[in-house]
């Protein structure tokens, strides 16, 4: 565990550590002498750095090779410790906890999920998270090299004026997690984190300006702007589900009327399908009807998709993203949803932008929030200067 | 003129220069000894820095005071050169050139404008800009300390794929300006620059997340996100005028239909007023009718304001700005416009955000684009690390 320092010397040292880790990542096992040649660091500095990396569990010194050497002691090889977790992501969703971890090579070591009752107390959710983390890497996950934990929660995060109820549903959450895992904790909204994950490892990997829309029991989203997670002036950003739609007059959970959520959430689409004479006791049945070519189901999705595309066009004109990612359970509807979305998007976006925006289905699924927590740590933790190139 | 260097040593040196300039700004005239005490720099380093600042014209060494001293040579006092321009902003608008300059204390030395025929060739526009710059500071503007020029142009800027016609209307513009002024040139869209200016010195001074909407012959805008000018993935951002509005079916100059611009530009509002039976040969007449309480004029502005507020609410839900600034000629309508805008904004924004957003009239007027060019230089030029605190 490294102290949470951010001075110039700590940053310089961290830069050296990153350099060494990077070389081991790129070249595989290296001797100290080879590391010295590649890094250009002095023998003393390198020795300090390697000692600390071994102590933290990030690097292991493997047994000397048996190859005969002319003289001197056998050469020790340094390698990255494959089971050393460098960052953990935890998504405290409404009805489930999701966890993921990456090692020092920024490879995902594993992910795990467990559903729970929405009323489960926070202490038990945290215990559940801890248990799930323990199952990662076949139970061999070492937390010695852990830099930070990125945590996703439901609801707005990041309003400096919002008082003690913020910045997470349980005011004690970061403190409790910090105590359990002995690492700094970064918290953000889990849908926004899913946006960051899609822009890091998912459908929009490498995208600098990404719009993520999640069509689930609620409709939300997130924005990545110039490569960074966008938060807005008071912690509200990406609330695409509460943009008013033409002809929308349904009362929304947010207190307003006519929000996109009232016509494009899973519940709203199911209700519209039933009003039109369709029979479905849940999303699975509706998806089945779509697959079977049920014209009522197709028309229902077309109407929802048109609203979605119109709202997306408005947001695109405002912020010009390069990629739009559609996620959430409703996105599983596929072309019957994506085609009307695309059509309305093209109809209402500025013609000059029409061919500049890609619409893609999300690829990370339920793990998005937890992976986004890791992406947050890798991008924003003051201790980690390296951007993850290909961690998945 | 400093070479356009950005290495660690150049940055360190620049940091020292900024420190010295800052001390002179704060304390007024200082001797070298006093500068040494306040800055903590070594005598040698300080001497180098001061010599360079005097050579660049940023600092002047004033005649030694006549006060009697006990021994040694008289004490020379160092002061900021009030007429040394550190950054120039030029706005090449459709029918006018606007220029502004700030000195090394980041105070606006002066602004100047001259209208011209929209067909004026670029060479002549540049000559006009040069002439206008020459009139600043009563013609005493010195360009020796000039760090960079920030230039606003009409149309999209910043699309890496757009080919040679970009990044400005005249592909040679930056090169021509660089040659004339012997300084680096930064170019951006002039409406976006006006947004940056309002967020720096205008209605939203100090705002980190600002939405600027300009209601003129076109309807455009700009976003400041987390303190930085937002550009979007392909150079299009803040195109609020091309967001579709309910009931909008007019053909827009962008090629789409139903854009906000078709109901909220100066021309569209005048046309709507005339269709409703009003008589006005121009905006001035319409503003006069509003002032006189003409109910047709009031209803016309109410309709436009409602569309504007609805679009603003959608954008606010997406990006959560802290301040909205309304500028452009139509903003001069005042309360008859602002009240319906505010009402529709409050009606359609998420209730949780209702009291978090401030709607304000722009304060910088026509100079906004040129001032924004300066703000761009002060924020983004690699040579200037200091953010302007109170330059106006």
UniProtKB/TrEMBL annotation, chains A, B:
Pfam families: HTH_24, ROK. Gene3D superfamilies: 3.30.420.40, Winged helix-like DNA-binding domain superfamily/Winged helix DNA-binding domain. It comes from the Bacteria. Belongs to the ROK (NagC/XylR) family. The keyword Transferase applies. PANTHER family: BIFUNCTIONAL UDP-N-ACETYLGLUCOSAMINE 2-EPIMERASE_N-ACETYLMANNOSAMINE KINASE, ROK (REPRESSOR, ORF, KINASE) FAMILY. The keyword Mitochondrion does not apply. GO terms for molecular function: kinase activity. The lineage of its organism: Bacteria, Bacillati, Actinomycetota, Actinomycetes, Kitasatosporales. This is NBD/HSP70 family sugar kinase. SUPFAM superfamilies: Actin-like ATPase domain, Winged helix' DNA-binding domain. Keywords: Kinase, Transferase.
């Amino acid at each position: 565990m490294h102290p949470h320092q951010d001075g110039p010397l700590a940053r310089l040292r961290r830069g050296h550590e990153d350099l060494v880790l990077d070389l081991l990542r790129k070249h595989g096992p290296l001797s100290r002498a080879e590391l010295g040649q590649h890094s250009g660091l002095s023998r003393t500095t390198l020795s300090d750095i390697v000692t600390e990396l071994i102590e933290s569990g990030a690097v292991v010194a493997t047994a000397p090779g048996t190859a005969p050497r002319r003289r001197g002691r056998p050469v020790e090889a340094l390698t990255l410790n494959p089971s050393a977790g460098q960052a953990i992501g935890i998504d405290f969703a409404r009805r489930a906890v999701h966890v993921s971890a990456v090692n020092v090579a920024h490879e995902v070591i594993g992910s795990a999920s467990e559903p729970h009752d929405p009323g489960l107390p926070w202490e038990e959710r945290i215990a559940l998270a801890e248990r799930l983390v323990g199952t990662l890497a076949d139970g061999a996950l070492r937390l010695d090299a852990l830099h930070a934990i990125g945590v996703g929660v439901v609801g707005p995060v990041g309003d400096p004026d919002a008082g003690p109820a913020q910045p997470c549903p349980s005011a004690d959450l970061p403190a409790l997690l910090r105590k359990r895992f002995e690492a700094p904790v970064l918290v953000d909204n889990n849908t926004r984190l899913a946006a960051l994950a899609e822009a890091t490892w998912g459908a929009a990997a490498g995208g600098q300006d990404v719009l993520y829309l999640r069509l689930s029991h609620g409709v939300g989203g997130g924005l990545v702007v110039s490569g960074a997670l966008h938060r807005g002036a008071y912690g509200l950003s990406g609330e695409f589900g509460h943009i008013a739609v033409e002809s929308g007059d349904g009362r929304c959970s947010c207190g307003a009327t006519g929000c996109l959520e009232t016509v494009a959430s899973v519940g709203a689409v199911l209700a519209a399908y039933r009003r039109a004479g369709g029979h479905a006791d849940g999303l699975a049945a509706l998806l089945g009807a779509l697959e079977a070519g049920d014209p009522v189901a197709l028309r229902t999705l077309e109407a929802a998709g048109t609203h979605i595309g119109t709202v997306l066009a408005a947001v695109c004109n405002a912020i010009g993203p390069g990629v739009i990612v559609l996620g959430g359970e409703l996105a599983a509807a596929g072309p019957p949803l994506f085609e009307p979305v695309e059509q309305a998007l093209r109809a209402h976006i500025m013609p000059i932008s029409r061919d500049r925006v890609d619409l893609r289905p999300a690829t990370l699924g339920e793990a998005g929030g937890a992976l986004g927590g890791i992406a947050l740590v890798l991008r924003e933790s003051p201790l980690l200067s390296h951007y993850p190139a290909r961690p998945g």
